[in-house]
Amino acid sequence: MDSINKNQPEDNFKDLVGQEAIDKIKELGKKAGSCFMCTRITTGQPFDTRPMSAQKIDDEGNFWFLSANDSHKNEELQQDPATQLLFQGSSYSDFLWLYGKCSISTDKQKIDELWDPSLKVWFT
After folding, report:
1. H-state helical runs in the chain
2. Beta bridge partners of 48
3. CA distances from 25 to 10, 12, 16, 29, 53 (A)
4. What backbone torsions phi and psi does residue 61 show, to the nearest 5 degrees?
5. In terms of Cα–Cα distance, which of 57, 55, 79 is closest to 67?
6. Cβ 96 vs Cβ 28: under 8 Å
7. Which strand (E) or helix (H) includes residue 49?
8. Are 54 and 100 in contact (CB under 8 A)?
9. Is the pTM of this model over 0.90?
């Protein structure tokens, strides 16, 4: 416990599992609206970070993003699927960080489901 929390104990951190964890992930992910996606995190080299917005967070807690087939992030994920997502729900609270493995899907039906015309600015 650090000196601030020692003097002012707060219930501000909780490890969650199961459905409670999925519900909290979905809540905070939606509240934040966007995150930083970090790739190349296990290579021993500086990792790459870019802002991303999840198009969907499914009932299993999986995040779905859209990106161009020829993007640098897709190339990095093919070499090393380990990824970290960093969220901030507000300027003073609701922080979330997740570590996991990404996979790239080119499923046309899924892309059509996730597509929103406002995304057009990111794709040529």
Report:
1. 3-7, 18-32, 72-79, 108-114
2. 39
3. 21, 15, 10, 6, 14
4. 85, 10
5. 55
6. yes
7. strand 48-52
8. no
9. no
Residue 23, both tokens: 């519900």
Using CA atoms, how far residue 97 sits from 14, 70, 75, in Å, is 13, 26, 23
For the cut 60, the answer to whether the pLDDT of residue 103 exceeds it is yes
* The two structure tokens encoding residue 105: 């899907």
Tell me what pLDDT residue 121 has.
Answer: 86
Per-residue pLDDT tens for 11-42?
767 788 999 999 999 999 999 989 999 999 98
Q: How many residues does the chain have?
A: 124
Phi, psi at 103, each rounded to 5°: -130, 150
Cβ-contact 67, 108 below 8 angstroms? no
